[in-house]
Amino acid sequence: MDKIFLDTNIIIDLLDSKRKNHTKAKNLFIKLIENDFEVFISEDMITTIYYILKGNEKILEFFEKIIEEWNIVGFGKDTILESINYCKKHKTDLEDVLQCICAKNNGCELFITNDKKFINCGIKIVNYDFFNL
């Protein structure tokens, strides 16, 4: 089973039907389920998603479901320090680096994001096009 890490923007695409990539996100999730991918997100995404989507009952129910199905992982001291050092060296965004290093440190092979210029932390960065959506 392949381990994949989802960026926050992918989950927001799924949950917000007004976003232009909503249909692609729905199709991606179908593909992930059909192909038995092991899904990872970081625990800090929960509050970010809730805040951005103005938290409601539907969002809370989504969180209840993914807690049973997905791996929700923390950063931990080592990931945070590695990310800080990466940012100092490469002058880049800490939030993206934390997510990517977290994915790498949890053995994920793919990081799925909509960001056009995502950092290179040592794992394959892909978007919807990778899955022919």
UniProtKB/TrEMBL annotation:
Signal peptide: none annotated. InterPro entries: PIN-like_dom_sf (IPR029060), PIN_dom (IPR002716). Residues 4-120 form the PIN domain. It comes from the Bacteria. Gene3D superfamilies: 5'-nuclease (3.40.50.1010). This is Nucleic acid-binding protein. It comes from Caminibacter pacificus. The lineage of its organism: Bacteria, Pseudomonadati, Campylobacterota, Epsilonproteobacteria, Nautiliales.
